[in-house]
Design brief:
Layout: E1 3-8, E2 12-18, E3 24-31, H1 35-47, E4 53-58, H2 87-93, E5 95-96, E6 103-104, E7 111-115, H3 116-127, E8 136-141, E9 145-151, E10 154-155, H4 188-192, H5 194-201, H6 212-233, E11 237-241, H7 250-262, H8 269-272, E12 278-280, H9 287-302
Parallel strand pairs: 1-4, 4-7, 8-11, 11-12
Antiparallel strand pairs: 1-2, 2-3, 5-6, 8-9, 9-10
Bound molecules: adenosine-5'-diphosphate (ADP) and zinc ion.
The site of zinc ion has 7 residues, from helix 4.
């Protein structure tokens, strides 16, 4: 079936049309402005592409509880224009185009929304390196840090949704930098996101490839977080994505420290084969958009549009 997928980021919106086999027929992107400017553009793009269901993976925090009256709304966020915006509702019911004053009709099709990282986790579980597994953790390390988590085949939501990028970490004794997270003096995002690397070293992260000190400290923080995720979530695979993880050299450093920090406490075949346990994303950075389309597929299945068996 024809599925629409939207990966909604703070900088840009990526839109795709594809099908449940993971094929992508068309893709475009719009820069993220105010909702009343950006959403009409996206609705117009989808409305002429005959999609039968739509999935959205979005930046958060977002209400992902389908039973909630504010399901699909962005919650309190520093992106003020988006705070409390009914994102899913705008796609369902339509929105007035800020530029032309024209009312753009909503799409009367099944829809589902989740966090961008849960979307990426789902993409890897459906089409990528986590196919066949049901407990998986996807961590993105980019402008921010966030984790998508599946436990026993369900994307984790709970009270809100995981905010595992803000997990506390011990400061590296050689780290002269400070957390850039306005909320936490020692959280992972504050100490290990791309912008925090740039603040600490005064250069773009990509320009620091040859500085071993940078990656020693960076991998120390990521490894601590992974150890905590291993203890609490017990994922069968950990997938690391996002711009910072383009530094391939981080992988061996992280794996080595994870093993050391676990101290032999947990012994599983997965940890013995750590090169296949802590891995890069496998879908050419399409995991988010493929996961979003899969959310759309799940919405169609839930509404009886397709027989999943
Ligand atoms: P976003 O998180 O905004 O969706 P990315 O995942 O691309 O986007 O992350 C952007 C961050 O990743 C920036 O802070 C950037 O400096 C950093 N980054 C991008 N490419 C690299 C690279 N090759 N090496 C190290 N850091 C990188
Ligand atoms: Zn924080």
């Amino acid at each position: 079936m024809r599925l629409g997928g939207l990966e909604a980021g703070g900088t840009k919106m990526v839109l795709s049309v594809g099908d449940e086999s993971g094929e992508i027929f068309a893709q475009t992107s719009f820069s993220t402005g105010k909702p009343e400017d950006t959403v009409p553009q996206m609705l117009k793009w989808f409305s002429v592409r005959n999609i039968e269901a739509l999935g959205i993976g979005t930046f958060g925090p977002v209400d992902v509880n389908p039973e909630s009256p504010t399901y699909g709304s962005i919650l309190e966020t520093p992106k003020l224009a988006w705070a409390h915006f009914d994102f899913l509702g705008a796609f369902k019911n339509g929105i007035t185009d800020n530029e032309t004053g024209e009312y753009i009709q909503g799409l009367k099709i099944p829809m589902k929304i989740d966090t961008d990282v849960n979307g990426s986790c789902l993409g890897e579980m459906t089409f990528g390196c986590a196919k066949g597994l049901d407990s998986v953790l996807y961590l993105t390390i980019g402008t921010g840090i966030g984790a998508g988590i599946s436990i026993d085949g369900r994307l984790a939501h709970g009270m809100l949704h995981p905010e595992a990028g803000h997990i506390s970490v011990l400061k590296h004794p050689d780290d002269k930098g400070e957390s850039i997270c306005p909320f936490h003096p020692n959280c992972l995002e504050g100490l290990a996101s791309g912008p925090s690397i740039e603040k600490r070293w005064g250069k773009k992260a990509v320009m620091l490839t040859d500085n071993d000190e940078v990656w020693k400290i960076e991998s120390f923080y990521i490894a601590q977080a992974l150890v905590n995720y291993i203890y609490t979530v017990s994922p069968q695979k950990i997938i690391l994505g996002g711009g910072v993880m383009h530094q391939q050299k981080l992988f061996p450093l992280i794996r080595k420290q994870v093993v050391e920090m676990l101290g032999g406490y947990i012994k599983t075949p997965e940890l013995t084969d750590i090169d296949n346990y802590i891995v890069p994303n496998s879908l050419d950075d399409n995991q988010g958009i493929l996961g979003a389309m899969q959310l759309g597929y799940e919405a169609a299945v839930a509404e009886g549009l397709v027989d999943d068996h």
